[in-house]
């Protein structure tokens, strides 16, 4: 497995260990990890602090996202996909999209390359979380 996806999975596990939603994200440029984050909606009582948003927040301002790849353990939602499109992040690598299809088509329509690894580890982690925390999960995805 790719080292950056491993980091994203570690971030997802960290979020779960804090009582949050197990979604992790890492931003990479030219083989270097610029920063990472995880979903902190529960921990920080912040409705928009999804994994990708926390990752980008941890990285801080960048003049350009050229040649970057954002890794996420789960297919980004429309809010995070909109941020990816807005910042012109050219590539997204996701752990899985079975438990949540997200906004893959939206990103692709805007020129983002989306690679879905369909990793059993990511599917299992989210499946367990959704089964054990349906209300929290529905709140996270706006249902």
Briefly, what is this?
This protein is of the alpha/beta class. It has helices spanning 3-17, 41-44, 51-59, 78-86, 104-109, 120-132, 134-141; strands at 24-29, 32-38, 68-72, 91-94, 113-116. It has a 5-stranded mixed sheet.
Topology:
Blueprint: H1 3-17, E1 24-29, E2 32-38, H2 41-44, H3 51-59, E3 68-72, H4 78-86, E4 91-94, H5 104-109, E5 113-116, H6 120-132, H7 134-141
Parallel strand pairs: 3-4, 4-5
Antiparallel strand pairs: 1-2, 1-3
Helix pairs in contact: 6-7
Characterization of this structure:
Helices cover 45% and strands 18% of the residues. The protein has seven helices and five strands. It has helices at residues 3-17, 41-44, 51-59, 78-86, 104-109, 120-132, 134-141, and strands at residues 24-29, 32-38, 68-72, 91-94, 113-116. The radius of gyration is 14 Å and the shape is globular. The relative contact order is 0.17.
């Amino acid at each position: 497995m790719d080292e950056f996806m491993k980091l994203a999975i570690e971030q997802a596990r960290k979020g779960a260990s804090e009582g949050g939603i197990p979604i992790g994200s890492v931003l990479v440029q030219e083989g270097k990890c610029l920063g990472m984050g995880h979903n902190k909606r529960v921990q920080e009582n912040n409705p928009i602090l999804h994994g990708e948003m926390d990752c980008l927040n941890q990285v801080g301002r960048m003049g350009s996202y050229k040649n970057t790849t954002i890794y996420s353990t789960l297919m980004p939602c429309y809010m995070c996909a909109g941020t990816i499109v807005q910042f012109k992040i050219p590539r997204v690598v996701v752990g899985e999209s079975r438990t949540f299809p997200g906004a893959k088509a939206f990103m692709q329509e805007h020129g983002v390359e989306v690679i879905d690894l369909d990793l059993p580890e990511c599917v299992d982690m989210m499946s367990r979380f959704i089964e054990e925390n349906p209300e929290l999960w529905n709140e996270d995805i706006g249902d």
